[in-house]
């Protein structure tokens, strides 16, 4: 197979448009995963055992099933219950829910790492529960887990192509479409891979730098 | 001011405090001494509601600590505690540490809380550190800020849990001098767990010797340190004072 530079350059604008969708899905999916993961982590510590066990069961179940199955379920099965989502929205929800199950564990570890003395000092000052969390515990727990969260963002970014199955027009979908039109897959798929590399490698270096800084409050 | 009545505290099968009864009068300074594991710190933790009693009652200013939640919360607010490990909030500046509870719990305005923070930092000699984070302070400075933070809540009862144990020896004197000053200039009731026998001697109105979760001797310091009655107290003092 001969590499055709003209075709590669010609494919680039469409691939970059696809990349924008990939980045958008990653960004929105991450925000959802960060927010929902925190909610899961807090509910897991709830004083209501039923609530905490329900969330535990959901997290364990959802973490043990493939993202692809979850995305298909959300996009193709939910309409049967009256919930119809666009491919991108369904993809973001799938990514967000799936990764929330992982980020909840990350938050849990971060919260557990806050020394017991901090909780006791907050109790000794009679701070209300909301302030204990928002003013004392989370500001100490979250910075510690930022690198781990960053790793999940990179991982999520690389899993966005799975949303091809539900019709999200992200970068690999675009490469596939170009290949279907021209019967040449090497250039668009290679470029798609290079685009992933160009973003995920610097991002992983950034996360490594963050890891080195963690612990300095 | 403080009444322990038949208090028992168990952790599983381990009895930490056994049928403990004593009272502390308002403005009294009581030091709890005894070997490690004798239950001294547990008493402070029970008063601070960081642990709960297994049996018996604790009353502060006539109000049962474990009784009606709303009323006991009012009385709990009158108790402050300083910990061995300082436990300052590292995500806040010294100012943040000092104004957090007064604004959130006592409902003081930021200006009022700030003025109080400056006043207290003057008292502990750290006014210039007001905008520093705790990680930039020495252990002794952190402990002085922790004392100021507890005082910012205007407590009627102050609990001091081995507040110099984590400090380098050269920093201990400054903290103890500050506590002496607070003891002399306020009418706060103070319960203090310490291994600093010299401090216990000249700071306390009463010293209680603990062993095995019980008070085995309770006397003014001048008597307890010079003529202890119990052989266990004599043995303990001999060990810690080296004579």
From TrEMBL, chain A:
Q: Superkingdom of this entry's organism?
A: Bacteria
User: Would the keyword Membrane turn up in this protein's UniProt record?
Assistant: yes
Q: Where in the cell is it found?
A: Cell membrane
Give the record's family classification.
Belongs to the binding-protein-dependent transport system permease family.
Q: What is this protein called?
A: Ectoine/hydroxyectoine ABC transporter permease subunit EhuD
The terms describing its cellular component in GO are:
ATP-binding cassette (ABC) transporter complex
Q: How does it sit in the membrane?
A: Multi-pass membrane protein
TM segments? 20-43, 189-207
What are its GO biological-process terms? amino acid transport
Query: Where along the sequence do coiled-coil regions lie?
Result: none
Cross-referenced InterPro entries? AA_ABC_transptr_permease_3TM (IPR010065), ArtM/GltK/GlnP/TcyL/YhdX-like (IPR043429), Ectoine_EhuD (IPR014341), MetI-like (IPR000515), MetI-like_sf (IPR035906)
PANTHER family assigned: L-CYSTINE TRANSPORT SYSTEM PERMEASE PROTEIN TCYL, MEMBRANE COMPONENT OF AMINO ACID ABC TRANSPORTER
The UniProt keywords, alphabetically, are: Amino-acid transport, Cell membrane, Membrane, Transmembrane, Transmembrane helix, Transport
One MF annotation (Gene Ontology) recorded for this entry: transmembrane transporter activity
Q: Where is the ABC transmembrane type-1 domain?
A: 19-207
UniProtKB/TrEMBL annotation, chain B:
State one molecular function term (GO): ATP binding
Q: Which residues form the ABC transporter domain?
A: 2-237
Report whether Transport shows up as a keyword of the record: yes
Q: Where does it reside? A: Cell membrane
Residues of the signal peptide: none
Using the UniProt record, give the first listed, main subcellular location.
membrane
Cited InterPro entries? AAA+_ATPase (IPR003593), ABC_ATPase_HisP-typ (IPR030679), ABC_transporter-like_ATP-bd (IPR003439), ABC_transporter-like_CS (IPR017871), MetN_ABC_transporter-like (IPR050086), P-loop_NTPase (IPR027417)
Q: Membrane topology per the record?
A: Peripheral membrane protein
Looking up PROSITE patterns in the UniProt record yields: ABC_TRANSPORTER_1, ABC_TRANSPORTER_2
Q: Which Gene3D superfamilies match?
A: P-loop containing nucleotide triphosphate hydrolases
Keyword annotations from UniProtKB, A to Z? Amino-acid transport, ATP-binding, Cell membrane, Membrane, Nucleotide-binding, Transport
Highest rank taxon of the organism: Bacteria
Report what the protein is called: L-cystine ABC transporter ATP-binding protein YecC
């Amino acid at each position: 197979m001969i590499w055709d530079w003209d075709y590669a350059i010609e494919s680039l604008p469409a691939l970059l448009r696809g990349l924008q969708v990939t980045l958008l899905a990653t960004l929105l999916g991450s925000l959802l995963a960060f927010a929902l993961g925190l909610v899961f982590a807090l509910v897991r510590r709830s004083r209501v055992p039923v609530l905490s066990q329900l969330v535990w069961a959901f997290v364990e179940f959802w973490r043990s099933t493939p993202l692809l199955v979850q995305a298909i379920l959300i996009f193709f099965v939910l309409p049967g219950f009256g919930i119809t989502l666009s491919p991108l929205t369904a993809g973001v929800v799938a990514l967000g829910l799936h990764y929330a199950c992982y980020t909840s564990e990350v938050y849990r570890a971060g919260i557990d790492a806050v020394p017991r003395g901090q909780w006791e000092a907050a109790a000794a000052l009679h701070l209300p529960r909301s302030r204990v969390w928002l003013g004392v515990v989370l500001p100490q727990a979250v910075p510690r887990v930022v690198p781990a969260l960053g790793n999940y963002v990179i991982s999520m970014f690389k899993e966005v192509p799975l949303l091809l199955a539900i019709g999200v027009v992200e970068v690999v979908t675009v490469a596939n479409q170009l290949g279907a039109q021209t019967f040449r897959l090497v250039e668009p798929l290679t470029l798609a891979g290079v685009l992933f590399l160009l973003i995920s490698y610097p991002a992983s270096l950034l996360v490594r730098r963050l890891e080195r800084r963690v612990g300095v409050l | 001011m403080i009444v322990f009545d038949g208090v028992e505290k168990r952790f599983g099968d381990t009895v930490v405090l056994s049928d403990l009864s004593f009272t502390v009068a308002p403005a009294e300074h009581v030091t709890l001494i005894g070997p490690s594991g004798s239950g001294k710190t547990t008493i402070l933790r029970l008063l601070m509601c960081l642990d709960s009693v297994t049996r018996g009652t604790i009353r502060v200013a006539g109000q049962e600590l474990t009784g009606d939640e709303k009323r006991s919360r009012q009385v709990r607010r009158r108790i402050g505690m300083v910990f061995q490990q300082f436990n300052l909030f590292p995500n806040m500046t010294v100012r943040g540490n000092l104004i957090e509870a007064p604004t959130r719990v006592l409902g003081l305005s930021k200006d009022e809380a700030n003025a109080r923070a400056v006043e207290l930092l003057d008292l502990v000699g750290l006014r210039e550190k007001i905008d520093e984070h705790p990680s930039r302070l020495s252990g002794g400075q952190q402990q002085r800020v922790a004392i100021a933070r507890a005082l910012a809540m205007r407590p009627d009862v102050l609990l001091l849990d081995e507040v110099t144990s984590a400090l380098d020896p050269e920093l201990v004197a400054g903290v103890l001098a500050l506590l002496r000053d607070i003891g002399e200039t306020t009418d706060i009731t103070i319960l203090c767990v310490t291994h600093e026998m010299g401090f216990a001697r000249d700071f306390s109105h009463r010293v209680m010797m603990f062993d095995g979760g019980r008070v085995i001797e309770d006397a003014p310091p001048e008597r307890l340190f010079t003529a202890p009655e119990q052989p266990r107290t004599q043995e303990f003092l001999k060990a810690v004072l080296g004579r």
